Amino acid sequence: MIVRIMGEGQIEVAAADIGVLNDLDGELEAAIQTGDESVFRVRLHALLDKVREVGKSLPDNSLEPSELILPPSDASMEEVREMLGDEGLIPG
User: Cα separations (Å) of 34 from 9, 25, 60, 71, 92?
Assistant: First the structure.
């Protein structure tokens, strides 16, 4: 799966790693629902850090279609809320 982190580029993530990313996505959603800015910030960074950790960065000149688009690390809670779909940022 190709994931784009806005402002950073694309990362290829193996299907086997999607479960852990979904767990982190759920924690991020919970922080947004409670409106806790400090927990939101920690959860957003944890999700993005895990994507970077388990994924493989694609070259900057690669133009693969992104299956998921994640917000940048400095996104506001409202910006992330607007990006959430019915299944969070990471469906599944």
Answer: 30, 14, 37, 19, 22
16 contacts: CB under 8 Å, gap ≥ 6: none
pLDDT (average), residues 42-56: 97
Q: Record the pTM.
A: 0.90
Residue whose entry in the numeric block shows the structure tokens 């694309």: 10
Q: 12-20 contacts: CB < 8 A, separation 24 or more?
A: 12/55, 12/56, 12/58, 12/64, 13/51, 13/54, 13/55, 14/54, 14/55, 17/54, 17/55, 18/90, 18/92, 19/92, 20/50, 20/54
